[in-house]
Amino acid sequence: MNFNIGPRMMKTGLAVALSILITESLNYQLGMVAVITAVVAMQPSIMRSITHIKETFLSTLIGIVFALAGAYTIGLHPASIGITVILAIAVNIKLGWVKTVNITILTIAIIMMSGDQTIDLMYMVHRLSLILIGISSAFVINALILPPNHQKILYDMVKKASDKTNFLLRVIPNKTMKVKELKKIESDLSKNIKDINNYLGIIIDEKDRMFVRNRFHFMRDIVTFRQMLRVIEMEEDLIENLELKLEKIEEISKNQSFLVKKLVAKIVEYHENIMLTYEKKVIVQKELQRESQAAMNLTINDLINELQQSEMEKWIDIFPVASSIVKLMVELEQLDKYIRRQEMQF
Length: 346
Description:
mainly alpha, Methane Monooxygenase Hydroxylase, Chain G, domain 1, about 0% strand
């Protein structure tokens, strides 16, 4: 069983501890409100925290407005609070503030439960200050403790996904793995690709506001990582086509099946060499790399010649695999060019 404590887990714990320390030093009751807010407010980057604080502030205002309106129109009994929460959630969703809807609900509950008949303003201010403490704790910890190394985080995610695609491209042509285990790795791979896309989305959205020392080098890394992701997505597409069509190709032509498997093996080797070159673990001579590319192109030509001699009906099964291979080779060659211009420096 793997037990890994990541930076975000550690920062969330520290934000909780800071919230508790502040509320206890001020002798505030219901410090749990500050703790919950700190957990909800913790974000994967500093700039996301700033954006989240803005959204949280606006969501809190919505909560205050709805709570006061609800209290003075339909009262403070449980049904009134429930109706007010429903309406506030609808407004939050309409404005696109889904991530901070919990803060709105918390604000409404705090205000509308502050008294039996009328709202106690001092109680309301006291409870709202707990929300502020939680938000501030999360932001301070996120800004000062373990600032994220985005390049390393992204590359680790990419490497993890790349190892899975290379493994699958080895075992699927040779049918050396149980279907259940294969499906599990494929499911994990899809999740990895989604995580990489989400993380890249965060960086691309915030690239102009991030605090980075060498912005030019940072952005070149991001371009390289995007190309790595493109290769992984092309490999996933090839994996799907191999699973669907390889058995049929073997029935149609043993030679075509042999050429496909040979190409897949060469592609895996080429991809691994590119990644090892980026990590500065190996030095692949340009001549050897050119020879490898020439061998793949020659094999592709052989496969095309085989296809031209096939009946049109058989193209339906062979063409998707051949197309995936050609697209992947183009993306790998592009990645190779990026890697030769950019070394890993994190």
